Amino acid sequence: MLTDIEFAQLSKRLGYEFKDRSLLIQALTHRSAGNCHNERLEYLGDSILGFVIAKVLYHRFPEVPEGNLTRMRSTLVKGETLAVLARKMELGSVLRLGPGELKSGGFTRDSILADSVEAIIGALYLETDIETCESLIGQWFESQINSLNPDEHPKDSKTRLQEYMQSKKLPLPDYQVAQIKGKSHNQTFFVNCKVKLLEQCVAGEGTSRRKAEQDAAFNVLRKLKID
């Protein structure tokens, strides 16, 4: 449970105070911590975030073609961007995780942090309306939106890592699925990425193999301190 002080501080960071505190707590609860977890809220929030960002970009860049808008939206809603936002909101300090995730440092994991942002958006929509979501999401992403370059072609983490390894004339990263958890309609993929520059494999996770590989590549880039 959130203490009154934690709730007040988090509300200030979010720019919104939930009337139904239990809804916020659910949004902060990983499935490892109990049955009343945030995955359904995450599912809802993911759709709302995509819609709101698409709408913002559509009006902000009236002359930009669809392909560029899609790339810009992907840059804003990808897990890495959401994890940065979660850290800015200090969500890691208030997440509810099971013992295993706590022990493995789940409160710092990008995928868990990103999911919590989407879950909060889902909870926000259920308590308020789409207009409130648009207002808050606009505030949260203001600096990222303002720094967008419509002509830039952002590269995903796997592409960046592959190009870096090629530039060093080293073998390409090797991705191996380590584990798949959950039922067929609700799976989590765990992937290990092996690169020549690191002694140990680096883990990643996601709701698909592609997302898990992207997460692993991003974590490798962080370990190698590659911007």
Describe the structure.
The protein is built from eleven helices and three strands. The chain has a three-stranded antiparallel beta sheet, covered by helices on one side. The chain folds into two domains: 4-146, Ribonuclease iii, N-terminal Endonuclease Domain, Chain A, CATH 1.10.1520.10; 157-223, Double Stranded RNA Binding Domain (2-Layer Sandwich). A hairpin with a 7-residue loop joins strand 2 and strand 3 (202-206). By secondary structure, it is mainly alpha-helical. Helix content is 56%, strand content 9%. The model has no long low-confidence stretch (mean pLDDT 92).
Outline the fold blueprint.
Elements: H1 4-14, H2 21-27, H3 39-60, H4 66-77, H5 79-88, H6 99-103, H7 110-127, H8 130-140, H9 142-146, H10 157-167, E1 174-181, E2 188-194, E3 202-206, H11 209-223
Antiparallel strand pairs: 1-2, 2-3
Helix pairs in contact: 2-7, 3-4, 3-7, 3-8, 5-7, 10-11
